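Journal club prep — side note

Before the paper discussion, L.F. wants everyone to see what a predicted structure for a comparable chain looks like in token form. Sequence:
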Amino acid sequence: MKRIAGVVALLGALVGGPLAAQEGEGTGSADIPSATPAAKPPEKQCRPDVGCVTNLPLPRFVSLKGSEGNARRGPGLTHRIDWVFTRAGMPLRITAEYENWRRVEDAEGAGGWVHYSLLSGVRSVLVTLDMAELRAAPEASAPVIAQAELGVIGRVLECRTDWCRVAFSGTRGWIRKTDVWGVNADEIID
């Protein structure tokens, strides 16, 4: 019974009526909560370099999980589809978060809002230099073991300061970070 009276007192305070006094509660200002702060919870303040939903850094790289992903104009199924990503494993950069949606962009800056279930934390890179050289070791003097064409997608195995070890269709080697898109210049991946 006491709990119900407390709810009635709060409702009375919110509508400005004398219900609290009628239910036998005190009428002092300390007994009636202020309606302003309780009416709407404060919005979460987010830092521009950290996602509000995941608390992970922004921007950050992920990859497309399947072979197709719709990029929408806004975060929700009611928003128009502006772009369709069609390459499984394609690296994407997350630039914003809203509930279950992530705003992403590709190497050319095209993108939109994608449902998080279409994205994977598996890291990949897109070759940005035609006939980029894969080397046996992370140094310019190491032997070339393969060449990757412009636009080829590879899986990231590790990254050092200037080089990343990647796998392209079973071939593994070291490629310069400047020859790929999908990792930050200062990023180290073990």
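L.F.'s comment for the group: Helices lie at 2-15, 19-22, 35-39. Keep this in mind when we get to the figures.
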